[in-house]
Design goal:
Nucleotidyltransferase, domain 5; alpha/beta; five-stranded mixed β-sheet; globular; 11 helices
Length: about 350
């Protein structure tokens, strides 16, 4: 590790269908970040094809790395460490970034820092001018995860509750597919919802009537399927279903998040992950959190979805506490439970 100057980390993200590279300086902040989305590649298949994702990462990551270093005004010799997403995610996609990261670290003689993808999402708000104080609550909502987490400090997390089955992002995407909307479905469903009536269908708010902080969205998906097949799927009916299912998902997320605020007595709430870009969720949570005298924090929209800037933040934090790969072995884990692998409290 370089001594006598601020730490500088190059980070690689390749957990699913975004290829991304970023350079972060401990003193100067984010110097550059590059991202290439594979949405057009996978749209024809209606979802991510793992093998195609892996192959495209191998084509994109090196050019993105060169571009990020150039924009950051950084040479490889100035890097203190290489951080990369080690999981969870598509294992083939993860391996492309992990192999590149570990190889580059070996060649430069610097540490390799395997990063938990979800920790990246949790720490993404640290990229903003106004950062949330610790401790705070985090609602992590993405295509594969829905969690309520108490964040006491970077590396110190307590899982309060998570989904038992489908995540909120899956509920958006699967509902969109039932309505015949193109991939990626979540944003398309949110756009269509603006044309419909949110009270047209009385969809369930799963587990909102039960104590605790766990989620379940599989029953909601079934209700949407029955509604979509229950009558001719006109444009008006499609918009009403979209609006009603968005309302049900947002009601559930908001209700559980506010319950966690009330029971933990924490007044600062971070919303992270791709679903955090949903405008209805932002507006509804914003009003409710302010009524409780709290503050709501979001990463900017480009850092809600998968990106390397958040991996750089998490990688820098891990580097500073000495949490690096001991032997530069390539690490890639399709399954990596947040509560089991990170330092936890409680």
């Amino acid at each position: 590790m370089k001594s006598g100057c601020p730490l500088r980390v190059l980070a690689i993200e390749s957990s699913c269908d975004e290829s991304a590279v970023a350079v972060l300086d401990e003193a100067r902040g984010l110097l550059a970040h590059e991202i290439f989305s594979q949405v057009d590649l996978h749209r024809v298949y209606g979802g991510v094809v793992p093998e195609l994702a892996s192959r495209d990462h191998t084509r994109r990551l090196l050019p993105l790395m060169r571009s990020a270093l150039e924009k950051a005004g950084t040479t490889p010799a100035e890097l203190s460490a290489i951080a990369y997403t080690a999981g969870p995610g598509l294992v083939g996609a993860l391996l492309t970034g992990a192999a590149l990261g570990a190889s580059l670290a070996y060649a430069l003689g610097v540490p390799a820092v395997p990063v938990h993808h979800l920790e990246g999402h949790l720490l993404a708000p640290l990229l903003e001018d106004e950062v949330p104080p610790f401790p705070h609550l985090a609602l992590l909502v993405s295509g594969g995860h829905t969690m309520l987490i108490q964040v006491d400090a970077p590396g110190q997390y307590r899982l309060l509750g998570e989904t038992r089955d489908d995540a909120a992002g899956e509920a958006f995407d699967k509902s969109a597919k039932l309505l015949g909307l193109p991939y990626p479905g979540g944003p398309e469903l949110a756009r269509l919802a603006g044309q419909g009536r949110p009270d047209a269908f009385d969809f369930p708010r799963p587990m909102l009537d039960r104590p605790g902080f766990e989620f379940s969205f599989s029953g909601l998906k079934t209700a949407v399927m029955l509604a979509a097949r229950g009558a001719p799927l006109t444009d008006e009916r499609r918009a009403d279903i979209a609006s009603s299912v968005q309302e049900a998902i947002v009601d559930t997320l908001v209700g559980k998040a506010l319950r966690a605020m009330d029971q933990t007595h924490l007044r600062d709430l971070v919303v992270a992950g791709g679903v955090g870009a949903n405008q209805l969720l932002r507006e509804r949570l914003g009003r409710q959190v302010r009524r409780r005298g709290g503050r709501l924090y979001f990463p900017r929209l480009e850092f809600c979805t998968d990106n390397a800037a958040m991996i750089a933040v998490a990688g820098l934090m891990r580097l500073k506490r000495g949490d690096v790969a001991p032997d530069l072995a390539v690490q890639a884990r399709a399954q990596w439970p947040l509560a089991n692998e990170l330092t936890t409290t409680g």
